Structures are given as C-alpha cells and as structure tokens.
Amino acid sequence: MSEPTVRRRRLGGELRRMRETKGLKVSDVARTTPLNDPKISRIENATVGVKPADLDALLDLYGVDDAEKRAALHRLAREGSKRGWWYTYRDAISPAYADLISLEADAKSMRSYQSTLIPGLLQTAAYARATIDAINMTSAGEHVDALVQVRVARQAVLTRPDPLEVWAIIHEAAIRPQVSNNPQVMRDQLQHLLDLSDMHHVSIQVLPLSAPPHPGMAGSFAVVGFPETADLDVVLVESLASSLYVEDPTEVARYGSAFERLRAAALPFDQSADLISNVKKDVTK
C-alpha cells in the first residue's frame, strides 16, 4: 500500500478532531450517515479517500456551516491522491520531506525560525550542496545531487503567480559559519538573502547573538499556513533523524505565539540586511 499523501492525512485528522469535539464515537457517526464504522476509521486514518456526498454528510453532522472551510476540506478530498513533481524523486527523499514539499505547494504562507542553517527555500544550490553533504555524511554523490535538485525545485513556490509568503527569522549563528572550503559559497548565499529580501513576499530578520533568552532556544520550526482557515495550519519540527508534524490547533497556535516573540526579539528588516551585508564583507577572501 502506498503512503497516504499529506493532504489526505490533513483531511482525516481534521475530520477526527471535529468528531471528537462533538463528543461522538465512530459508531455514533455510522448510525447517522451513509458510512459504516470501518470506512469512517479508514478515512480518519487516511488509508482511503472520501466521496463528496459522504464528506458533506460528515460536515453536516459536525455542524460545519462555514462555506470556506467546507470548500477547503472538499479540495483536500478531491486532491487527496494527487502526486506532485517531487514524486519523481521518491527514492531519494523521505515521506516526511515529500509531505513538506506538498504542504509548500498548497500553502499561502510559511513562518520559519532557523537556528543553525539558512532555510531551504532561501538557499543557493552551492550552499545546499555543502550543507546536504555535511548533514547526510555517508550519502553517495548521486543521492546528494538529487537532494540538491529537489531543494532548488522547491523554490519555484517563490516565483509562481501567487507566490508563497515567507517570513524567515534566522539566528545570527546561521549566517556566520563557513560551510565550504570556498568562501565564495557563503558570500553568494548571503547576497542571495539580500536579493530575496527585496521581494515583496519575502521577509527576512536576523536574531542577533545578543538576543535575550527566547522560545527558539528549543529548536527550529516552521508554521505552514493555508488560505482557507487557520484550523488547517501545520507546524514542522525537524531534527537530524526525524521530522515531526504538529497539527493540533492549540499546539499550532503555541508555535505561532513563539514566532511572534522571536519576531519581536529579532532585528528590524533594515538592520537585519545591514548585518547580513557586514557579515558578507567579513567572509574570508
């Protein structure tokens, strides 16, 4: 059985949350809709899709009157089995990484905090290659090549007709390391950040080394927002060995609050650009 797409999991998780909020058991839903117990469970667990009429029956039962939310959930159901361009690279990327790319493709905004790396959407190909090679440690050259290609292809969301709105807070510690024996790699990366910050939909702030204690000390994260409703927003928390998706609205809101605190602690946009420029000048020639 193939991995369920993130769209189908988001839909199933949202339907489960709405059922539980209403205090209903699966058997209760089965008694009042055309669906039986196993089918409801499979939909919520994202192992099968849901037909439009069945979805409407569930939404009626759960009291979902908001037209935008209903439309958003129907879109998730309709595109639940859709595979994107990244499916070509399925042998090179993990299911969690494929999920991230899928989320970016559907999203309206991404608010991210990075403590040690430039965010993937803002990386040059050379910087991506240097960091991917270091993080993967034992990967063969062709695997690294594929991952670099994927990272660069992801950045198309920044130049599509309705571009992804990106607000990146980058710790000063992430803009100072030499990631390659060639200093030009880091100089080009820093200039790339400056160029991207001129885009109206890209906001970049630097959190200085002198900042007081802050929520970002717990690690990097990204809040992925969708155009229909904040109830469907997702948080990605990454580590060396795994990726965790946070989908519970209360926890997502907590990360949103953390981002706001980081935004307040970071340097304003103009001072952030000045710091990036100064660090670029100091890169070993």
Layout of helices and strands:
Blueprint: H1 6-21, H2 26-32, H3 37-44, H4 52-61, H5 67-78, H6 95-106, E1 109-114, H7 125-136, H8 141-154, E2 165-171, H9 172-175, H10 183-196, E3 202-207, E4 221-225, E5 234-238, E6 243-246, H11 249-265, H12 269-282
Parallel strand pairs: 1-2, 2-3
Antiparallel strand pairs: 1-4, 4-5, 5-6
Helix pairs in contact: 4-5, 7-8, 10-12
Report on the structure:
It contains 12 helices and 6 strands. With 285 residues, it is of the alpha/beta class. It has 2 domains: 6-78, 434 Repressor (Amino-terminal Domain) (Orthogonal Bundle); 94-282, Endonuclease, Chain A, CATH 3.30.870. It has a 6-stranded mixed sheet, sandwiched between helices. The chain starts with 5 loop residues before the first helix and ends with a helix.
- What class do helices, strands and sheet pairing give? alpha/beta
Ends apart, CA distance between termini: 53 Å
Note the beta-strand portion: 5-15%
Low-confidence stretches: none
Percent helix range: 40-55%
Number of strands: 6
Number of domains: 2
Rg computed from alpha carbons, rounded to a whole number of angstroms: 21 Å
Biggest sheet architecture: 6 strands, mixed
CATH topology of the largest domain: Endonuclease, Chain A
Secondary-structure arrangement, i.e. CATH architecture of the largest domain: 2-Layer Sandwich
State the name of the first-level CATH class of the largest domain.
Alpha Beta
Shape: elongated
Tally of DSSP helical segments: 12
Mean pLDDT across the residues is 88
Q: In which order are the strands of the major sheet placed?
A: 3-2-1-4-5-6
Name the helix and strand elements from N-terminus to C-terminus, one letter apiece.
HHHHHHEHHEHHEEEEHH
